[in-house]
Structure formats: structure tokens, C-alpha cells
Design goal:
By secondary structure, the protein is α/β, with parallel strands linked by helices. The chain has nine helices and ten strands. Strands 6-7-8-3-9-10 form a six-stranded mixed sheet, sandwiched between helices. A hairpin with a 5-residue loop joins strand 1 and strand 2. Helix 4 crosses helix 5. It binds adenosine-5'-diphosphate (ADP) and magnesium ion. The site of adenosine-5'-diphosphate has 10 residues, from helix 2. This is ABC transporter ATP-binding protein. One of its GO terms (molecular function) is ATP binding.
Length: about 250
Amino acid sequence: MLDQIVKAPLIDIRQVGRSFPKPSGKDVVVLENVDLTIKEGEIVGLLGRSGSGKSTLLRIIAGLISPSAGQAQCRGAAIQGPPLGVSMVFQSFALFPWLTVLQNVELGLEAKGVDRAERRKLALAAIDLIGLDGFENAFPRELSGGMRQRVGFARALVVHPDLLLMDEPFSALDVLTAETLRTDMIDLWMEGRLPMKSVLIVTHNIEEAVLMCDRILVFSSNPGRVAQELKVNLSHPRNRLDPVFRQLVDNI
Ligand code: ADP
Ligand code: MG
């Protein structure tokens, strides 16, 4: 059994399908025969058209919904509810409006059974890391979109996740705010200060995917399926042209 846990990949998605009932009565098939494995330490990007089922796949991995076919496993065990060590940054922030920044972030630790004092300490550290020092007692409605998503990041990172799922984390923000937050996150990442081990990020930004990921999965639509896998080639001349990319290569 222990052997199985050690050898099992962090995430193993096999032949997963998901359909939703339509008002007309017939089911709509959103995902079909999806295969995906994530090993600990991997940074994986997911690209695909709107409506192709990317968020649905992330929700399955996060244990928020179950597949209608196939198997979704985390460390060799079927995903039934949110797996320990997996957290998610949502496109639309998904903060609780009646809780303060600190309470929203502490919530990330609830399932882990961390005691109160330790919860507070970890939450304040995550808030500080993500640039929200001084806003601990603010409510989400008092914050800008960029700051709200910083809370989303803090809540997901506070658990020091084995896997961080990010569902188009910058796409609900205006261009400038998105760029600031993206740059801040990449800087923290490059400095080794983001406490997650592996990442699955959904993005429409190809540059972002190339910059951050070890491999990129391309999703097809109707129904959603992993159609192609690209290994990021660090020596590709187009990649070398990008100044941020050069900085990344310098850091390797
Ligand atoms: P993406 O994230 O790639 O844009 P989604 O996973 O959000 O795609 O959605 C894929 C399709 O599944 C869409 O057509 C959407 O309307 C449908 N869908 C997603 N969630 C539900 C749901 N809970 N009930 C019915 N249909 C849904
Ligand atoms: Mg989506």
C-alpha cells in the first residue's frame, strides 16, 4: 500500500468524461476520454478555447465535481472531495464577501486541522508574501480586483500546496492590473518564494505558458480532450528573444 502511494503520480486522470444535463433533456458531453498525469514538481500549462471544458477538468481535480466516466486519482486514491495538498486559484476570485482578508485566507487551512495560533501565523505570512500587508481586516468589497485576486492566491498558497491549480487567474482583471500581478507572481516564483510543488495553470496567454511551464497541454473542443502535448524548448530562438525569458534562462 505504502509502495503504491510512493509510486503513484500526484494526479492521474484516466479516460475521464463529464457531461451536464441540458434543459432540453439531452446531456451535453463536455469532457471525453481525458488522460493527464502530473508528477510532483511539474509545471503544466493547459491551453484551449473557451467552453472546451478546462475549468470543468480543474474542478474535477480539485474535487469540487466528480467525473461521469473514467478515473480521477490523487496519489493513487480516487478523488472524492478536495484532496489534501491541492488548492485552486479561481478565475472569478471566489472569495467569501462576509469574511475579511485574514479570515478568507485562514479558511484555506481549515481542512488541514491547523491550530488557531498557527493558522493566524501562516495566514499573515501568506498575506505579507502576496503584497497585502495592512489589508488583513479589509473585506473583499473594499479591495480592487487585483487585490482580491491576491487574496485568492494567498488563500491557495497558505497551505503550501503540493499542487496549485490556477484557472485563468489573471483573465478577470484589466490589462494593466493583470500585467502587474502576473509580473509580481513570476518574480516571486523565480525567487523561489512561492510555496507550491507543482502547478497546473489554465491560460490563454501563450507567452505565459511558455515562460512558466515544463509542458503545455492543448485542449480540443466539443468534447474537451487533451489533443496535443508540447514540451517547452528552452533553446528555441523565439523563446530566447523574449527578455523575460532570457532572465529566466539566466536563473537556471
Ligand atoms: P472552459 O473553462 O474551457 O471555458 P468550462 O469547463 O467552463 O469551459 O465549460 C465547458 C462547457 O460546460 C460549457 O459549455 C459550459 O456551459 C458547460 N458547463 C460547465 N459547467 C456546467 C454546469 N455546472 N452545468 C451545465 N453546464 C456546464
Ligand atoms: Mg474556464
